[in-house]
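Example A, followed by Example B.
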Amino acid sequence: MKIKYLTSMILSCAILSGCGGSSSSSSGTSTSTAAKVAITSSNQSTISNSAINQATQNLVGSNLSYVGGVQTTTTPTDERFMNKWTDFAFQKLTESKSTPLSVSGAVISTTQCTTSGNIQIDTDGSNTTTPTYLTIIFNNCVESGTTGNGTISLSNLTVTPNTSAPTSISATFAFNFTVSNSSTSAGIYGGFTIAATGIGSASRQDSFSGTSFNVKYGSQYETLTNFAFVSTYNNTGVSHGYSDTVNYSFASDVILAGFDFATINPLVRNYLDVKPRSGQVIITGANSGATTTKLRVTVVSANPNAGTMSGTVTLELSQNNGATYGSPVTKTWTQLAAGN
């Protein structure tokens, strides 16, 4: 099977006013050292856009292409980073079930890459035994000028059913993966735990949680810490809707900013929507003076353009840790993306 690889990480480089931070070292175990930013009327649009993108795209979903084969779900293609990586792993797990079990700990299958190198699969499961781990090993795997190296590992695997394509799965993912081409390099480090139900059905839920997940671009890092994503997709109605409840802390050397994010009402997006059509979140920044800055972002569901870039959100800024909020300011998603 032809495997597609990470080809670029196109990160938004809008610089937030009032931000601090510095670049991390080149070690794969490093994280972003960017400090939290005090949220102001000048940077609230850029922060809102970045924060909600992270919430609905699992860190860098719109910025980083994924290693992908055929997805194992009925969920339409979207930009959710963690979903796509886990679906790739599910695909490999399904493929490994048809491979006769060899010695535990030994490579049981190898896929040749288009130009050179290979991908190896190591697991203790087969079509007659329940797997407890799966390791995907990229060995100088070159395709279309892009080289992948490293591992994606699943441990503490629970798969149902064992005898066919999984409909539910729980596992702990660990990433130590790098990709490069002639002009750029990227790395993925850390991991998360996933519990997925309804795989391959019209109603699927994915729950992701973890303490540290890092993406490295050149010498810069973007880091999620203490995160929990609950993403539901329902294909039984006309809207084919997504619903996301997300909480996380984020730091980025790219935009030199950090903030915390909490969901008040789930972010809802129908299939083909480019932005949420309803939901409310609180973004917490650094102190301004003696008190913490907070930003309440509410998606205007009554807007006839909800779900498009012309849809609107209201921004309410608090300079006293959420005790009171200022007058709402209405912005379109286009304005938020432009930092206006």
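Example B, a separate protein, is given below in the same form.
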Amino acid sequence: MMGGVCKELIVIEHPYARSTPLEVLMGMTFIMTVVFLSIDGWAEAHLAALMSFAWFLVTFTLYFVTWLLHGHAAWLRDRGSVGDVEDA
């Protein structure tokens, strides 16, 4: 009985459907990079720009991977529906 209840509580959501925070973080880190590069009086501004650009690359990579997974899931779904038609 508990197995059925647990299965009903688990909602499977694709990571691409929740990628909005990644998009916001990508935008913020890119803007921070530009802002840090425009600061002249701060000695560590270039280091801060480099670190924020590194975070931009990390979030971009995560977003790109979720986008690829979304395309792969759609391909599998289409491939599965074709297989069902062929079996009938």
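On Example B: The CA atoms of residues 33 and 50 lie 7 Å apart.
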